[in-house]
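Title: Comparing notes on inverse folding

I've been comparing how different people in this forum approach sequence design from structure. To keep things fair, I'm posting one structure and asking everyone to reply with a full sequence. Here's the target:
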């Protein structure tokens, strides 16, 4: 091979190598750009996964969709709830839990409440009333002002000592892509530890009925403790029920509190 040919070959190799380097850089840039497009939501951590109907849940961020997104007839006006789970949790028909039906159970669920039972044990003949937050106004500073009412969770039988406090709180929401806060009222309830729920109507202790179905909140056990958040979204209030048992470990209770703190209510 002549000297001139060697020079031409070396130049060709160098040119091909340069093209390969440029192509690699371009592909890398496009790949990085595509990743940024996928993750371009600074409000919600990670890539949310729709909450499965049942089964064990891997750690990560989930999206619990509003079961009645069309709001036919007046549902709670929200698209869904984002939340982050640690290991060890599972879901079943909208209930997200750990240690289901065990002494250390801890769980939460979301509801559009229709009516509240006055007597959650003898519920078949019980009087019904609207949720406490159903009729309210707002003070000049934005605080929730409840209209005088009878019934509701504050007056429900078998749910702890009276009077029961309705504590104003703020939860994180997402509206038109902007992160903010939404007002809510929290009430802490209990189920009598000595109550044999099998003696209640159909063996169920029912807190309330559900707006968009014939269902009701009947996942209760003797001694159960509930923190119920009535969230002031449009149409009907969104209700988040966070429950645990007296034997729930402090570690699991801390996980539940962290999950609640991670929640972002997407209001569409």
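Reply #1:
Here's my take.
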């Amino acid at each position: 091979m002549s000297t001139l040919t060697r020079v031409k070959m070396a130049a060709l190799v160098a040119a091909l190598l340069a093209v390969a380097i440029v192509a690699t850089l371009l592909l890398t840039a496009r790949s990085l750009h595509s990743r940024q497009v996928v993750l371009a939501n600074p409000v919600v951590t990670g890539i949310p996964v729709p909450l499965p109907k049942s089964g064990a849940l891997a750690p990560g961020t989930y999206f619990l969709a509003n079961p009645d997104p069309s709001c036919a007839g007046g549902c709670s006006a929200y698209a869904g709830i984002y939340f982050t789970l640690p290991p060890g949790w599972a879901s079943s028909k909208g209930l997200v839990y750990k240690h289901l039906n065990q002494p250390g159970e801890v769980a939460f669920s979301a509801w559009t409440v229709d009516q509240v039972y006055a007597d959650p044990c003898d519920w078949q003949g019980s009087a019904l009333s609207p949720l406490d937050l159903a009729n309210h106004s707002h003070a000049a500073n934005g605080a929730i002002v409840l209209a005088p009412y009878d019934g509701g969770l504050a007056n429900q039988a078998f749910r702890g000592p009276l009077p029961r406090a309705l504590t104003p709180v703020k939860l994180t929401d997402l509206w038109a892509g902007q992160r903010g806060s939404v007002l809510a009222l929290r009430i802490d309830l209990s189920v009598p530890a000595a109550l044999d729920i099998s003696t209640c109507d159909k063996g169920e202790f029912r807190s309330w009925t559900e707006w968009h179905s014939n269902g009701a909140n009947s996942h209760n056990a003797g001694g159960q403790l509930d923190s119920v958040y009535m969230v002031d979204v449009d149409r009907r209030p969104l209700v988040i029920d966070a429950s645990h048992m007296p034997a729930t470990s402090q570690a699991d209770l801390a996980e539940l509190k962290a999950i609640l703190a991670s929640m972002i209510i997407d209001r569409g």
